[in-house]
Structure formats: C-alpha cells, structure tokens
Amino acid sequence: MDALTEKKVLVSGASIAGLSTAYWMNKLGYKVTVVEIANEPRTAGAAIDIRGTTVAVAKRMGIFEPLISNRLTVDLIEFKEADDRTAGSIVLKNEGEESSNDDIEIERDKFITILVEVLKNDVDFMFNNSITALSETENDIIATFKDGTKRAFDLVFGCDGSHSGVRKIWFGHETEYSYFLNAYFQSPSSINC
Ligand SMILES: Cc1cc2nc3c(=O)[nH]c(=O)nc-3n(C[C@H](O)[C@H](O)[C@H](O)COP(=O)(O)OP(=O)(O)OC[C@H]3O[C@@H](n4cnc5c(N)ncnc54)[C@H](O)[C@@H]3O)c2cc1C
User: Fold this and answer.
1) What is the dihedral of CA 15, 21, 27, 29, to 10 degrees?
2) Ligand 1 center–CA 56 separation, angstroms
C-alpha cells in the first residue's frame, strides 16, 4: 500500500482548478474529497483553449482522446450588423483543412464532464456544502462544513475561484491584501460578446 494512501486532502471548488488538483492528488496517492458550494461542478463559462504545454498535461491525465473527440470546431467567425449583413469575418480554418491537435478548443461543460468522468470512482464529492472554518492542530487541519460536520485532513486546497472562500477564512477578507494597480483590465472573451 502506498504510504500516502491514508493521507487525506480536501479540495474546495469543483471547477477547472479543483478537479485538476483532485486528479493529481489522487494520482499521488492521497484520499481526496472535493467540496462544492453548488449542487454540481461549475460548467458555466466560455470555451477553454488547450494548447502549448497543457496538451502534454492532458495526455498525461489520459483525457487527450476525449478532448479531441469533443472539441469545438470553429471554421469562421462573422461579425453581423443588426440586419444580419456580414460586416467582417475571420477565417480560422479553410475548407478541408485538418484541425491541429496542438490547439484544442472545447466547451466548458464538455471539459468538466470529461474531468468528472476520470475522477468519479476515486474522489468523494460533497455538493451543496462549503467550508465555514479551518483550524490547524499538530497533525491535521480540521474543516468545519456548512452542514455542521467536522472532518480532519492533511492538506486543504482553496480552488474556489477568484474570491476564494478558503483564502478568506485563512488570510482574511480580500480587501485586507488587495490593492489597486491604477490600471483596468478587459477580458477578451467579454469584448467578443
Ligand atoms: C467574464 C469572464 C470571462 C472568462 N472567459 C474565459 C475564457 O474565455 N476562457 C478561459 O479559459 N477562462 C475564462 N475566464 C476565466 C475563468 O474564470 C477561468 O478560466 C476558470 O473558470 C478558473 O477556474 P477555477 O477552477 O480557478 O475557478 P472557477 O471556475 O471560478 O471555479 C470556482 C469553483 O468553486 C466553487 N466555489 C466558490 N466558492 C466556494 C466555496 N466557498 N466553497 C466551495 N466551493 C466554492 C464555485 O461554485 C466553482 O465551482 C473568464 C472569467 C470571467 C470572469
């Protein structure tokens, strides 16, 4: 039996970061629990691009083939006037041209379903629940959950988004350590909408 088998990990958040962390911690031999505040993993959001070094990571995770078979194929983007006239277009792939396996775009719900599929038999999921308190003892981290239960873990990962609940519990409210850099950032995906 692997020495890590009895080590327990708690991951907060069942989206891209949480499910990926759960995958690798399980692979390393930890007993993994994922707690998610919603009633299912997060599937909402824009499509995901897997390219560069992440292609090799996807292969090591054994999810490359399902990613390829569920990929989104966009051949052409058209910018429309209100009366449906095409004002401009970008050709992404010419007719008959093969899609590159080094650059995969996939809808977020499909990507998350693939990740859940590889995890579901090995990882415990707690939905409609969240961590309300964390306290460190000599050997463990004790997590208290919204449903009132308490459990001991060896490691806790906060993968619960940009306003992470774990970070807030452990480090304090984000207003205590975030500061304005005198610049604003606009996500390209929001511009595209
Ligand atoms: C407007 C906008 C557009 C974006 N467009 C793109 C894009 O086109 N492509 C792209 O790749 N990325 C895009 N992103 C970035 C996107 O947020 C990340 O790609 C990705 O979702 C981050 O994954 P994550 O797992 O870190 O966090 P998230 O996807 O935010 O997941 C956090 C998870 O934690 C859960 N959670 C939250 N609080 C708690 C809690 N207290 N306890 C337990 N669970 C909790 C949430 O329900 C969720 O499941 C966009 C973001 C925004 C805001």
Assistant:
1) -120
2) 22
